[in-house]
Amino acid sequence: MSNIVKTDDNYKNWITDLKGRYQSSQIKAASSVNREMLMFYWSLGRDIAMLRAESRWGSSFITALSEDLREAIPNAKGFSKTNLFYMIGFYRLYHMGEEFPQVEGKIDANKKFPQVGGKLEGILNDEVNQAGVDIFSIPWGHHKLIMDRCKDDREKALFFVQKTLENNWSRAVLMNFLDTNLYERQGKAISNFDRTLPSSQSDLAQEMTKDPYNFDFLTITEGYYEKELKDALMDNIQRFLLELGTGFAFVGREYRIVVGQTEQFIDMLFYNIILHCYVVIEIKIRDFEPGDMGQISTYVAAVDGILCKEGDARTIGLLICKTKDNVLAQYAVNNINAPIGISEYELSKLVPENFKGTLPTIEEIERELG
Q1: Are 206 and 185 in contact (CB under 8 A)?
Q2: Cis peptide bond N-terminal to 139, omega within 30
Q3: DSSP, res 285
Q4: Terminal C-alpha separation, the chain
Q5: Crossing angle of helices 9-51 and 140-150, rounded to 10°
Q6: Which of left, alpha, beta for 276 (phi over 0: left; psi -120 to 50: alpha)?
Q7: How far apart are CA 33 and CA 221, in angstroms?
Q8: Which of 339, 111, 77 lies closest to 208 in space, CA to CA?
Q9: What is the pTM of this model?
Q10: Beta carbons within 10 angstroms of residue 131's beta carbon
Q11: pLDDT value at position 109?
Q12: Residue 207: which residues within 8 A CB-CB, separation 6 or more?
C-alpha cells in the first residue's frame, strides 16, 4: 500500500470507486468483455487527466496507482505501469471535449475525485462517439499498436480503427498496414472518377485506390522484367489482394477477351463486390507514358461492352507504373472518358542480379530434401 492511500482520503475513496467500477465491468463482461473493459480503461485515463495526477502527487504517482489497484483488485490484470500510461494515452487521443481548466495555472488540492458510475455511457457519448467511429469495438492490443504508431494524430488513429472494424483485421494485419503508411497512401491515385462516375460511386472508387502500392511482400531480382513482376504478384495473390483492399475478387491474369476479330489480353482482371464493378489493372515497370491511356481505356470499354451484365456498375481502370509525373498523369486522365486511376508502386526487396544464378531451383531443393 502506498503512502498516498494512507494519507489522502480523497485518493483512498477514488481507489474504492475504481474497484467498484472494475467489478461492475466484470459482471457485464459475460456479454461484452472487450467493450466494457475498454470503457473502463478510457474512464480511468479520463480520471487521471482530470486530476492532473502527476502534478498533484509527483512523478511516482503511476507507480503508486499501479501498486494500489493491484492490491485492491488482486485477481485483475492490466494495471501495470505501462498499461496505465496506455490508458492515459487512450483517453487523450480520442477525447473530443476541452481540456480540464486549472485556476491560475495551479492545482486545486481539495479537488474531489471523479465519481463516474452510471453516468459513464453518457460521458462517452458526449466525448468520444462524436467521432462517428466506435473505438470500443476493437481489442485493446490493436489500440496499443495504433497508439504506438499514430502518437497524437487522432484522425490517423480513427482511420485505422475504422479499417480494422470494416475488414476484421487481426493484429498482425493491422501492424502490416501501420508499417506501410496506408493512411498516407489511401485514396491518393490520380484519377478522373469525379468526372466519369456517378457521385455515389466516385468517392468509393477513389477511396479504393492507393498511391503508391506497396509490393514489399515480393522478393525478386534487380533488373526484373514485367512478366517476372506479374508472376511474383500471382505467386503472392493473397498478399496482393490484401494490398488492393476490401472487396476485390480475382477473375484472371492475361484475361482473354475477343474484340471484333482480335484477341486482347488484360494484365489482371478483378471484380470489386463493394463497387459492383470490374476493375482492369495494367502494370508497367517503367515511367507512365500518355500512350498507356489508349490501351487501358480500350480494355475498360471492352469489358463494359462484353462482360458487364445488368446490375454491374461501370468498369474502372487502374494503371500501376514504376513512376509517374503527376502533372502529366492528371492531364492524361482529364482527356479520357473512361474512369481510370494512375498510381505508382514501390518495391524494395530486390536481390542483386548476380545472385540469380547461384540460388537453387525448387527442383534442386526438393531433391536435397528427398
Answers
A1: no
A2: no
A3: S
A4: 64
A5: 50
A6: left
A7: 48
A8: 339
A9: 0.73
A10: 16
A11: 47
A12: 186, 187
